[in-house]
Design a protein that fits this description.
Blueprint lengths: L2 E8 L2 H20 L3 E5 L4 H7 L7 H8 L2 E6 L9 H13 L4 E7 L17 E7 L9 E4 L7 E4 L5 H17 L4 E6 L8 H11 L6 E6 H10 L6 E4 L1 H14 L7 E5 L6 E4 L16 H13 L3 H16 L13 H10 L5
Parallel strand pairs: 1-2, 1-3, 3-12, 5-10, 8-9, 8-10
Antiparallel strand pairs: 4-5, 4-11, 6-7, 11-12
Helix pairs in contact: 1-9, 1-11, 5-6, 7-8, 9-10, 10-11
Bound molecules: nicotinamide-adenine-dinucleotide (NAD), 3-isopropylmalic acid and manganese (II) ion.
Manganese (II) ion binds next to helix 8.
Length: 351
């Protein structure tokens, strides 16, 4: 069996962490004979600034037809106004491949990293199902009378019955398969009338999952509750924009963006795996970026490719290195990106 992986390191920190992820994956592949094959693609700011093209025409089809997974770093560069290249690449792939599930686990790796008094690994462990193909991210809207005192800037939010239902179902199904008891919906149906579609669909779908405690929250209330009582949450399902915000909050609860992984999924398409963080221009290029988010993202990819044992080994090695304080400085350690990865490799039990 061969698994073809398209690697897109992107920009800045994305390039640094992806190099470490591929190094670790190559080691695991050697030991477990997974048949991983990596092809690298240089989509990012550099290529965009040189050619004016973020991603060539036909690329989405190539990924859809010829690849088993995409391993992504991050995109974003201060030299590109409005981050057009980032939107074309990242949102282009999410939308073009119809990756409607943005799966973002928020799991504390070590009690020491908790920012919350009295809350540890037992309390901080939930996943967010972020809708990933609609919402505020579709680009529908525009600007009128730009630069004048009467300027109008509009952005439409798209919520379709199909789109809302499939992400809600995905959340309940995952909860059921993984023995989780609670699914929470976060919307803003008290202020945004269109969100009543989310609430209604949630109520309809929850009937099929009687064993699961389904709860509705307004997103503002949920954001507070996540900080006060994170132990109340197993699975959260929400819109594209709210999911973006709540998962940075989730990263904050688990040690920061340096540790937060994600998977963009659709069972009938080519999945894309990326850390939640961006290109981190403030620290990129100094060799101090935390590789953990990308390594945990790689574990999500291994699991999705059917290599659960390899994924478990990688997650255990990361957890152990973090627990031992062998980390980059964002987690309180002193190590470089490469040295922190070495510590993970030293703890990998591949036998
Ligand atoms: P960011 O995630 O790049 O950085 C936010 C903060 O977290 C920074 O202080 C950074 O140093 C820190 N951080 C991020 N990753 C880290 C890591 N691995 N180790 C240690 N510290 C880390 O977010 P930002 O600064 O808002 O955005 C920078 C650029 O990245 C922007 O252009 C943005 O659009 C883009 N971005 C891209 C993605 C993506 O490609 N998926 C995600 C978020 C932001
Ligand atoms: C993320 C990022 C992206 C998003 C940006 C870079 C478009 O913040 O993956 O969380 O908002 O989805
Ligand atoms: Mn984000």
């Amino acid at each position: 069996m061969v698994a073809k992986i398209a690697v897109i390191p992107g920009d800045g920190a994305g390039i640094e962490v992806t190099a470490q992820a591929v190094r670790v994956l190559t080691l695991i592949d050697g030991a477990h004979q997974l048949g991983l094959q990596f092809d690298s693609f240089d989509f990012g700011a550099e290529r965009y600034l040189k050619t004016g093209v973020a991603m060539p025409a036909g690329q989405i089809e190539i990924f859809r037809n010829d690849y088993d997974a995409i391993l992504f770093g991050a995109v974003g560069d201060p030299r590109v106004p409005g981050q057009v290249h980032a939107r074309e690449i990242l949102l282009g792939l999410r939308f073009g491949l119809d990756l409607y599930v943005n799966f973002r686990p928020c799991r504390l790796l070590d009690d020491r990293l908790s920012p919350l008094k009295g809350k540890g690994r037992k309390e901080i462990d939930f996943v967010v199902f972020r809708e990933n193909t609609e919402g505020m991210y579709n680009g529908i809207g525009g600007v009128f009378k730009k630069g004048t005192a009467d300027e109008v800037a509009l952005a439409e939010e798209v919520n379709t019955r199909k789109g809302v239902e499939r992400i809600i179902r995905a959340a309940f199904e995952w909860a059921k398969r993984n023995g989780k008891r609670r699914v929470a919906l976060a919307d803003k149906s008290n202020a945004i009338a269109a969100h009543e579609l989310w609430l209604r669909t949630f109520k309809e779908v929850q009937i099929e999952y009687r064993e699961i405690d389904a709860r509705h929250y307004y997103v503002d209330a949920l954001a507070m509750q996540l900080v006060i009582k994170p132990e109340d949450f197993d699975v959260i399902v929400t819109t594209n924009l709210f999911g973006d915000i709540l998962t940075d909050l989730g990263a904050g609860l688990t040690g920061g963006l340096g540790v937060a992984p994600s998977a963009n999924l659709n069972p009938t398409s080519t999945p894309l795996f990326e850390p939640v963080h961006g290109s981190a221009p403030d620290i990129a290029g100094k060799g101090i970026v935390n590789p953990v988010a990308s390594l945990l993202t790689s574990a999500l990819m291994l699991r999705e490719l059917g290599h659960g044992k390899s994924a478990d080994a990688l997650e255990a090695a990361v957890q152990s290195a973090v627990a031992d304080g062998k980390t980059t400085r964002d987690l309180g350690g002193t190590l470089s990106t490469v040295a922190a990865t070495d510590e993970v490799i030293a703890r990998l039990k591949l036998g």
